[in-house]
Write a structure and sequence with these properties.
Layout (H helix, E strand, L loop, with lengths): L2 H7 L7 H19 L11 E6 L24 E2 L4 E2 L12 E10 L2 E12 L13 E7 L19 H8 L5 E6 L8 E3 L12 E7 L7 E9 L2 E3 L9 E2 L7 E10 L8 E4 L14 E5 L10 E2 L2 E7 L4 E6 L2 E2 L3 E5 L5 E2 L5 E3 L4 E11 L2 E13 L1
Parallel strand pairs: 1-4, 1-15
Antiparallel strand pairs: 2-4, 3-14, 4-5, 5-10, 6-7, 6-13, 7-8, 9-10, 11-12, 13-14, 13-15, 16-19, 17-18, 18-22, 20-21, 20-23, 23-24
Helix pairs in contact: 1-2
């Protein structure tokens, strides 16, 4: 994948050559990624979809599913796609338990949104301890895979307490979300990072009208922040997973259905591996989808920038425009322009500049100016 870089190395390489390297290397990189087997996933041939909410339609966390009406049913994962790990039930019986889950995200926010809708003929949640109907969720935001609880540590000689503080929920996270949580915290986080279930890293709300032992319907909304590294020393040194369009993440869940002390319980799992709760390599593949066509603009100018060298006032501009674009025009605010898609420009004087990108395409024209964002000295 570095052939392109080697070829460029034979020529004069300037401060702008990195874009040419990237342009030449990108097809090779994509080919390697797309052709590589997804070894760190369960049933890698099937990929579920995560719906992208438009930025002006982010769901409210209030226990009301109305905000999710825009999500097509093709994004829903139902009870028919789960299997009972305990073997008590050969197939799902919607009269006993029926669940449906939708997952969403918002571009620019490293959050995963969940809508959990469930009917149960016996809701079991009176116990103040762990026994509670539960939605157990495991997320691996960077597909790092591997064990996330001490029981499955690769080094059996490692002290269990050392493993607890070094790996428990660190590279992938497990949430026991209580359905419903009455008189207890909304979730148990397996590991030493209970802060990840609190704002500003998570939020939740439920609505229901039943008592323990009753039948009824539950609607639960919540969002979480997946972490590439969630250390026991707190959020200051932790690293949230970066969520981007078309990225694959590892995700799976189990629905733990208690039906009273003397009744059979079910452990309905999306993964074919019961031990997915402690091994991120057994999660399912989920893709962060682009906006559905009805929410996309036909053409919209977007861009960002990075100061490469403040002493030389050298700035790299990156086009992020959406739609089919046939031409670009940059006005750097200092009397100079460029028609490159991704120009690099050196301002001759210090100052704050109004930079404008104009784009055109079959669908029309669009413009985006940023006022004084580009500042050099």
């Amino acid at each position: 994948m570095w052939v392109a870089a080697k070829q460029l190395g034979k020529k004069r390489v300037t401060t702008v050559s990195w874009r040419r390297v990237w342009a030449l290397a990108l097809p090779v990189i994509l080919l390697e990624i797309l052709s590589a087997p997804l070894l760190a996933l369960d049933q890698p041939g099937t990929v579920f979809k995560i719906f992208q909410f438009p930025a002006n339609m982010i769901p409210r966390i209030d226990g009301n599913e109305d905000d999710w009406a825009i999500v097509p049913d093709t994004y829903a994962v139902g009870i028919d796609q789960l299997h009972d790990d305990k073997g008590n039930y050969a197939s799902p019986d919607p009269a006993n338990l029926n669940v449906r889950v939708k997952v969403g995200w918002v571009k620019g926010l490293n959050r995963l949104y969940f809508l959990y809708e469930a009917y149960d003929n016996y809701w079991d949640f009176a116990d103040p301890g762990l026994r509670n109907d539960t939605f157990e969720l495991v997320v691996d935001g960077d597909l790092s895979g591997g064990p996330l609880i001490p029981r499955f540590r690769s080094n059996p000689d490692q002290d269990e307490r050392d493993a607890y503080f070094s790996m428990y929920g660190v590279q992938a996270q497990n949430y026991h979300v209580f359905t419903p949580a009455e008189g207890k915290d909304w979730a148990l986080v397996l590991g030493c990072q209970p802060w990840i279930k609190e704002l500003p890293y998570a939020n939740h709300a439920s609505s229901y009208h039943f008592k323990p032992g009753d039948a009824g319907r539950l609607v639960m909304e919540f969002w979480i922040t997946p972490f590439d590294y969630a250390g026991c020393d707190g959020p200051e040194r932790s690293v949230p997973s970066k969520l981007e369009e078309n990225k694959l993440i590892g995700l799976s869940w189990a629905v733990i259905d208690y039906d009273g002390d003397n009744k059979k319980s079910g452990f309905w799992n999306l993964s074919s591996q019961h031990t997915m709760f402690g091994n991120a390599s057994q999660l399912r593949a989920f893709r962060l989808m682009p906006l559905e066509p009805q929410f996309r603009k036909n053409i919209e100018a977007k861009w960002t920038f990075k100061v490469l060298d403040m002493n030389r006032r050298l700035v790299a501009f990156e086009d992020l425009s959406e739609g089919q674009i046939s031409s670009w025009k940059w006005d750097f605010g200092d009397g100079t322009t460029s028609t490159d898609q991704h120009p690099i420009h050196a301002h001759k004087k210090a100052g704050e500049y109004v930079v404008v990108l104009y784009v055109e395409g079959p669908a029309g024209k669009s413009r985006l100016s940023k006022i004084w964002d580009v500042a050099v000295r």
